[in-house]
Amino acid sequence: MSAPPAPTMEIRILDSRLHEWGLPRYQSDMAAAIDLHACLDAPLVLAPGAAPVLVSSGLAVHIADPAIAGLVLPRSGLGHRKGLVLGNLVGLIDPDYTGPILVSAWNRSPSGSEPIVLQAGERFAQLLFVPILRPALRIVESFSVETARGPGGFGSTGLGHRGDAAS
What single DSSP character describes residue 83? Predict the structure, then answer.
């Protein structure tokens, strides 16, 4: 049984240097996301713990389907080896947004660590398309069904119901 055909997404190239660095594509047959390049005019030095910096990906997308959204994520190797993550942890691209994709780059390394130098054209983030559910919302005074867990949170699973959020 074959999978249904994937939807087609419109992508605008806003920075012509992407033609030499690499147009958006999946890097392997089973890659889940496309890499985003840092469209910079000069190397960007990110000091440890300094404020995040918005970096252009040189792209804009028009998802145009309310059942799909885009998630901008850090590349795992850069986060693990160098401490480069997103200032907002995950970026959300709504299906009706058509502006440039800007990535909040942040050096999460502790003070005193080496700065991260992001080079022009470097692959530094990735864009993942995910299905979205938009259920109808109904305001209630109490939930219609009780659960075994109930309101327990923050480490409460597997400990039995304690009923407090601090468990």
Answer: -
The pLDDT score that the predictor gives to residue 160 is: 54
Per-residue pLDDT at 161: 47
- The sign of the CA dihedral 105, 107, 85, 75 is positive
53 strand-pairing partners: 105
Which ranges in the chain belong to alpha helices (H)? 18-21, 76-81
* E runs forming strands in 14-79: 33-37, 44-46, 53-62, 68-74
Backbone angles phi, psi at 79, to 5 degrees: -70, -45
CATH H superfamily, domain 10-131:
Deoxyuridine triphosphatase (dUTPase) (2.70.40.10)
**Cα–Cα distance measured from residue 98 to residue 116, given in angstroms and rounded to the nearest whole number:** 30
* The pLDDT of residue 83 is above 50: yes
Residue 93 near residue 63, CB atoms below 8 Å: yes
Backbone angles phi, psi at 117, to 5 degrees: -110, 115
Q: Which residue has the higher pLDDT, 78 or 45?
A: 45
Angular region, 19: left φ>0, alpha ψ -120 to 50, beta rest: alpha
Query: Is the Cβ–Cβ distance between 85 and 74 less than 8 Å?
Result: yes
